[in-house]
Amino acid sequence: MDSSMSYWSIVIALNWFFHGTLSITTVLPTVNNNNTNNTNNIDTSSDTIEIKVGVLGLDYEGYPFSIPRIGPAIEQGIERVNNEMLNSSFKLTPVIKVYGHYCATSKAPGMAAELFYHDKIVAFLGPACTYAVEPTSLMASYWNIPLITGLGDNGKFKNKTIYTTMTRMSFCQCRIRRVLASVFRYYHWKNVSLIYDVSDANSDVLGNTLKDGLVKSGFEPNVISFNGIFNTSLGYYLRSASSRSRIILLIVPGETKRKFLLEAYNMGYIDGQYVFIDIVMFLFDGEYVGNHDWKRMDGQDIIAKKAFEALLRVSLYIQYGEKWDEFEKNVKEVAQRKYNFTFGEEKANYLIGTFYDSAILYGYALNETLESGGNIRNSTDITRRMWNRNFTGITGEVVIDDNGDRESSFSILDMNPITGKFQVVGHYLANKPYYEPVPDVKIHWPGNLLEPPPNEPRCGFLGDNPACIKRQGIPIYVYILLAVFGIGLLLMIVGFIVNRRNQEKKNMEAMGWRIDLSEIKFGTTKLRSGASVNFCGSQISAQSSKSKIASIVSENQIFIQTAIYKGAPVAVKRLPFPDVVLSKPLIRELNEIRRTHHQNLVHFIGACIEKGAVLILNEYCNKGSLHDLFANETVTLDQDLRISFIKDLVKGMIFLHDSDIKSHGRLTSSNCVIDGRFVLKVSDYGLGQLYKQNIYPPKFSEEYKKLLWRAPEHLRSTMPVRGSQKGDVYSVGIIMQEILYECLPFESESSTLTEEEIVSRVEAGLKPPFRPTLETPSEFFCELIQKCWRENPDDRPDLKIILNIIKSKNKGKDKDIMETLLGRMEMYASNLQSLVDERTVQLETERKKLETLLHQILPSSIANQLKLGKPVEPESFDCVSVFFSDIVGYTDLSFSSTPLEITTLLNDLYSAFDSVLENFDVYKVETIGDAYMVASGLPIRNGKKHAGEIGRMSLQLLQKVSTFVVKHRPKEVLKLRIGIHSGPCVAGVVGVKMPRYCLIGDTVNTASRMESTGEALKIHCSAMTKQLLDEIGGFFIELRGDIDVKGKGIMKTYWLKGEQDVNTEKPDPYCLTPPSE
């Protein structure tokens, strides 16, 4: 399901929760959208109309956009809007909500709904991070109110057909390549090397962006990628870069960058011939950005400072000056006064400024709308006034393009060798998209040079320019060096041969995909009665008497050769190759395919490559291929099943395109197979190197049939071994036509043309292009299919766009595939089949009831082990907390009540108790009469949290019992007596017919004694539990004193009285995103 659909469900549910209907009531009266001259129908009876904007953010101080930082900036911006833009009849007011400690989606949507429905806000300022921006923006689009964020840098937010009301004040990595290109052209640098670390997520993304982006800007960078976790030979990468250029981009984390520059210093690269460039968007003292400074206090700072002289830095532009200083001063003052947050030595970062500018931008649009008599709740009007606009903000010149995204400005910085601090030496501004040096500020080129280094040294990158080589006699030391070199070369050759043999041995040992022929057990494959026709390696039943549904869902129909491998059925594809050479590319490719996993890709199990036998073993899908279904005229697929197959096909191909395999190249309906759950899976992907060794031109009609799915550009020339992604889109279009119209490709054309003639016409590129006939087509799918098989590959849509189009068209009709099949079966099945379906449903219901009952009797982890038939061994726990309770006066109450009344009482009481337990990490062990036993810290360990969970639960149960009403004695007040203790115990399943999860140990006995020696309506706890509660903190505990406990002697015990701030919502650890380490 589309993720956005879940957000619409949230919006509707929250709307119903707040109002009970789907109507929307806001802080302003309802606006008539048909009357554009109506100034919002605002009630002007009061002096000032309050217009509220919602501010969403997090409070974790490790993020540069936390509420204590951006909140004061937004307040300053809104204050300026009220004082300088809006007239006195209106007042803009921020309503600030903190949705959590970390960047997460768990609470942001709820907070957004509360702001919209309860606080009546008309716009959002924030949030910042992607996980919170995405759901909030989708909800804002649904409510049709503007959302302006100071960050939101994820590329997905560029699509304003989804995020229709979002305006972004952040930067875009895609523009960095333009900045670098302008610097290179300014200094006449053409040869550039790009070094980036693939093990660091930020460096990897930016490195890949620049790798492709610089090419678009006219540069061919020497790309060097490495894994910073495993590779430490930084000198090797520097030498590799120096062989091609003297301008080196370092896209690496801060620590790695310092190591690179230290190594460059040791290699003599800080002599004025080299320039290193890094990208640091903005500085922030925390783990969010990392430490990009040269200073570490590790004894190497002097060398590091010298090495950093060769570094130029690209950062976001901030217009420093008196206004910024005053702004920063006010932000810090408000943060300390209102948010109890102290900046200390920390400077106000770029994102703080963008949120201030967000408030100013919204103020401009709001004021213009009010002055023109427009509708301030018309998000389209408000948003379009913010888009395609320029103004001077606190962060400099703010340029918003016609898509609602900011054209960022950048600065180029150089380190002052005296102060060791970076200073701005040039700009690339949004309104001046070219490199412009700062007047009277010079770059400190390394080596005390006054000019930048040339693109290429006079003697060449390798010093092999003949003009630099002097002709003279060969001195004796040259012969000595040549001799040493020859010996070294010989040793290197010997070492290389030995190493190659060892490496080949390791590669052979690492070939986990290789299967010995003796491990495959072939059996006698029996087909269903009726003739069989072989087409493209797929056996198709031609029996006409089979029913339509039976031909689809038959469990015994055999479509391809099968075998048994390690006790499981597998599909075996025998390749018609006489012999295969296990080359390194082929081994690498097979390893790559084996690592590829997706629900819509057939799992590659392995290959048997022996002389005369080349077998590919894949996951067995017992429903056959799409080709089998289409070639059988008795099969009819309903619309839901067709669309489900299409979506599965597109999802599988999207994953394939995003993987290292990149493309399929041989996609047909024969290698689209259906598994037992009617999920379509793509097979025969990869293996390009295998087919590359055996390429033959088509000779027979059967071979030309395989070309009916091939794109015309690949028919005209030799197709790459893996085809192309645009060629795959063409094949997907052909298969979509097959699925939607239940026919073979070019079925109507094949009545008058041979397969060879059809392929020739497609290859010829006729106008209009020769394609399959779309008879009585659906207008929607007809247009989509025709886009997929366009003649020009660049005009074909991306598969992700196709999937989004299908989802949007099929909104509200996305049925479960099994539900669709059952519906088809009900149309054609007999009364007997209907009875089988009914019994199946009943069996499934009973099974679920049994599973539910089992999970109620035993812990989930224990129940799952029993269901799998695994033995459950007793387990020791170092420390758990055990709870016992009973009812004081229960015996007298039982004596004066009927058994039925007592049963009803206990059921009501324990049902109420059970509802409380759901809110805590505890396990209900058992109830015996009025005794109630609960434990925490088992079967799943939770550290020391168990004492706190039992303590809070006990307080809640006391509160619950105070309001509990005994039905047959309404005036009777139950007196609950509670005892808790913490310590070690053993837990395990006891019994076979009625298994019970029992706790055994002295801890259980002591907890029971705490309860029996306690008092009514009090929580009696041991010293061990009290110690754990003290470590957790926040609990009020009172010393009871020393008491004589049966079997234990004198014990010091305590009363648990309460907890501080018990109404404070506890953070959900499973919904929070921890800060990156």
From TrEMBL:
GO function terms (MF aspect): adenylate cyclase activity; ATP binding; GTP binding; guanylate cyclase activity; peptide receptor activity; protein kinase activity
Gene3D superfamilies: 3.40.50.2300, 6.10.250.780, Nucleotide cyclase, Transferase(Phosphotransferase) domain 1
The keyword Methyltransferase appears for this protein: no
Domain Protein kinase, chain residue ranges per copy: 535-821
Domain Guanylate cyclase: 881-1011
Segments traversing the membrane: 7-28, 476-498
Catalysed conversion reaction: GTP = 3',5'-cyclic GMP + diphosphate
Keyword tags: cGMP biosynthesis, Glycoprotein, GTP-binding, Lyase, Membrane, Nucleotide-binding, Receptor, Signal, Transmembrane, Transmembrane helix
Topological relation to the membrane, as annotated: Single-pass type I membrane protein
CDD domains assigned: CHD, PBP1_NPR_GC-like
Main EC class the enzyme belongs to: lyase
One GO term (biological process): receptor guanylyl cyclase signaling pathway
Compartments, as annotated in UniProt: Cell membrane
GO-annotated cellular components: plasma membrane
Enzyme Commission designation: 4.6.1.2
Stored Pfam families: ANF_receptor (PF01094), Guanylate_cyc (PF00211), PK_Tyr_Ser-Thr (PF07714)
Organism superkingdom: Eukaryota
Keyword NAD part of the UniProt annotation: no
PANTHER family: ATRIAL NATRIURETIC PEPTIDE RECEPTOR 2, GUANYLYL CYCLASE
Protein name, per record: guanylate cyclase
Source organism of the structure: Octopus sinensis
